[in-house]
Amino acid sequence: MNAMKDLWDYFNEIMRLRYINALLDWDQQVNMPKGSVKGRAEQTALMQRLIHSRTKSDKTAHLIKDAEKQNNLSEIDLAMIREAKREYDQATKIPDKLVEDIAITGSVGNIEWEKAREKSDFSIFQPYLEKMINLQIELAERLDTGPTLYSTLIDLFEPGATYDWVSKVFNNLRPKLVKIVNKFEGSSDKPNQSILKKYYDPEKQWKLSIEIIKKLDFDFNTGRQDKSTHPFTTSLSSIDTRFTTRIWENFLPACIFGTIHECGHALYQMGFKEEIHDTYLAEGSSAGFHESQSRMWENIVGRSKEFWTYWFPIFQEYFPENLRDYPMEEFYRSINVVQPSFIRVEADEVTYGLHIILRFELEKMMVEDNLQASELPGLWNEKMENLLGITPPNDAEGVLQDIHWSGASFGYFPTYALGNLYAAQIYNSALKINPSLPEDYKKGEFSNLLNYLKENVHQYGKIYQVTDLLKKITGEDLNPDYFIKYIEEKFYPIYGF
Ligand code: ZN
Fold it and tell me: N or C end of the chain, less CB within 10 A?
């Protein structure tokens, strides 16, 4: 008998159930008629029950125990056992009732949050948020994996990260970002975005998005792009990766940078080594690491001058009415405007981190310091004024803008900012080995960067934990200075400094 092989086989099956569940979800978001929600919701709930009961079964416990006793386990086997244990622990520590309560409060809360946001009336959402905060506190208490409750929730998305660690990173980052934003406020030569807000034919945007991802080596033989209201990336197996984009006819960046961002996630999902295909290890090392890949392609590559040296003439051909007589240099500046704004998802590379720090501080207070939901809107606006110097005119553009708190994603926000930091640090290492990467982009050539990422990041999936992987790639622990250096070198010239 080979205990390790039995463990692999058993968890392969669980993973396949998850992929089937992902297919149901992908179809719902991309194809399904709106009126069919009820039937689909029941199917999804059934799949989740199946996955949950298999994960926490006695069989799982036995398989893990037997596998651990085996000699000569490889690095990959050990990683598999680590992840299997993590899943088993989580599944057994959380009672079915709590899972159900979170799911129901999340789906009802989501509908109420949408209403509240539409009417810009926080009081509609407040009771559901209160309930969700309590459920998240209970979840953290039961899991009890981190040194504090909020650390435990962060660990769900960024394994190993704690509140203290993230805090230290953000405290280092915050004053530097604020200083840069203030400096740019005083610039006498600010770029503006008006060119991006003209009418851009949706059909042509779609065609261009396909052209771009072809150039980025997205493999259409094992993946596809579609449209959905909220862009996302998912895998239906290790050789079937789907992602979506959205098209706004009066704002070009939504589709173009949305596509590049999701394509970055998709390339990660497509790049796992065959040995770990369709296993628990066929996932990003963490949410933050996943985000590092999407943001590297979207921002470091996709918003670089070299990228547009190649693409701008093509865009001019597609949209001569807007771009024929428009200078490339100005276009490049327009996609890199830095400006305090209310909405996180539209924020630029510099102010983005400040939006995250605000949410990070509020989440900590909600989970650990007894902050009441009713106090949130006021505190949100206060912090916004503090960090970005602006106050939202209403709650829709303030505390109600994100979907995360209506669902169960407490502890997720920090991973977005960590993604930016990982990206800058990893890219720095890529440049050391391959200093001519930016020259590649001018020729529409992106495979040298992709090959670097495949070899150093993608192939490993979840075999290594984040801190180990980052050290393996860059030789260092997380160092936010790389991000600041990247920001200064890129944006100072744009703002005439
Ligand atoms: Zn992303």
Answer: N
